[in-house]
Amino acid sequence: MDIKGSSSICRTCRKEVLVDNLALHESHCGRFLCLCPDCGETVSREQLEQHRLEEHSQVPIFTKKSNTAAAARAREGAWQEIAEQVNA
Ligand SMILES: [Zn+2]
Ligand SMILES: [Zn+2]
């Protein structure tokens, strides 16, 4: 199989992309995706905060898998704070 042109790896999603398209692809990718600095996984920009909290957070509220009403309220409060920071 003949491959026309050479390809390169997108730094954001790590897909193989034709060099001709790479600049366009990366700018598009970079707008919607980013790499998690903690695990190197590709996560959508919107979900990065949530991903980091759920996967890598040291905050006990999120790491503790508790189903009590108090824990649920605490989590909700914490999410509220995060939402306010994001929207600020
Ligand atoms: Zn990409
Ligand atoms: Zn991660």
Give a written overview of the molecule.
The protein starts with 6 loop residues before the first strand and ends with a helix. The protein has four helices and four strands; from the N terminus they run E-E-H-E-E-H-H-H. It is elongated. The protein folds into two domains: 46 residues, no CATH class; 32 residues, no CATH class. The protein is α+β, with helices and mostly antiparallel strands. The strands form two sheets. It has a two-stranded antiparallel sheet. The chain has a two-stranded antiparallel sheet with strand order 3-4. The longest helix has 19 residues. The protein binds zinc ion (2 copies). One zinc ion binds next to helix 2.
Q: Helical segment tally?
A: 4
* Poorly predicted spans: none
Kindly state the mean pLDDT as a whole number?
83
Shape summary: elongated
Structure ligands: zinc ion
Structure summary, number of beta strands: 4
Order of helices and strands: EEHEEHHH
The description of the largest β-sheet is:
2 strands, antiparallel
For the record, give the distance between the C-alpha atoms at the N and C termini, rounded to a whole number.
Answer: 52 Å
Strand content: 5-15%
Radius of gyration: 19 Å
Derived from helix and strand composition plus strand pairing, the structural class reads alpha+beta
Helix content: 55-70%
Give the total of domains. 2
Strand order of the largest sheet: 1-2
